[in-house]
Amino acid sequence: MSQSDVIIYFKFNVPSHKFKLYAGGIAGMAVDAGLFPLDTLKTRLQSPDGFIRSGGFRGVYSGLGTAVLGSAPTAALFFCTYENTKRLLKHNSILTVWEPVVHMTSAAFGEVAACLIRVPVEVVKQRRQAGFHSSSVHIFRSILRSEGIAGLYRGYTTTVLREIPFSFIQFPLWEGMKSFWSERQGRPVSPWQSSICGALSGGIAAAVTTPLDVAKTRIMLADSASIEAGGKLVLVLRSIYFAQGIKGLFAGIVPRVLWISIGGAIFLGVYDKALTTLNS
């Protein structure tokens, strides 16, 4: 089947509201598959065992299968929730006045939904990246055996508390930059322009929310009997600060900003391109 055949099939056989699911899934897989080594380095820099003991520069693709398996449904669920919430809120004439509030609220709902899939994937993936076991399947079974389903959702609250501030920064910036650029040139932004807006907004949001990401990583990697495994965000942040200072709170900031800047360009650019293609 050629590319044109695929586009024609989607246009006439797939309901338009499902395009967001497909576009989000395509975008998520593109990012996770392409930038996985940066994510691994970030995880190891944030690990309580230290960068070298967690694997250093070796095996930077450990856990890739888990990430790719979870990326499409996670991204699809986020964008479907984000776009539909945004559509519902825009029908409210009061909220339409404050466009950034619509984007922030929509992104928050999107993250809460996406984390239902993202967190179990992150728990398994990060333990694989940190060299806990030889396979993701082994890690998954070990978690279920020792901690049950709750173990797969360890750090859910912290992840949501990381993702919501991140989205509060990234999505209003992304939408605002696109609107400004669109007004200046007198036409809607193209996918490559959306990519640039995604890179800038993602990089800024990544830098600001790094301490929350460090805390999330520590909670997910912590021994089940440790205090950190309890998932109390403030307690974990204080522990990191007293042990390592500001440097510890911003561990892995360089690969995180690089990963999310490039990832934001690919993710939001591919999303816009896929959505435009499917709707054309």
From TrEMBL:
SUPFAM superfamilies: Mitochondrial carrier. The keyword Repeat applies. InterPro entries: MCP, MCP_dom_sf, MCP_transmembrane. It comes from the Eukaryota. Solcar repeats lie at residues 15-88, 98-180, 189-277. One of its GO terms (biological process) is transmembrane transport. It is a multi-pass membrane protein. The chain crosses the membrane at residues 21-38, 58-80, 248-271. It is found in: Mitochondrion inner membrane. Pfam families: Mito_carr (PF00153). Keywords: Membrane, Mitochondrion, Mitochondrion inner membrane, Repeat, Transmembrane, Transmembrane helix, Transport. One of its GO terms (cellular component) is mitochondrial inner membrane. Its main location: mitochondrion. PANTHER family: S-ADENOSYLMETHIONINE MITOCHONDRIAL CARRIER PROTEIN (PTHR45667). Belongs to the mitochondrial carrier (TC 2.A.29) family. This is S-adenosylmethionine mitochondrial carrier protein.
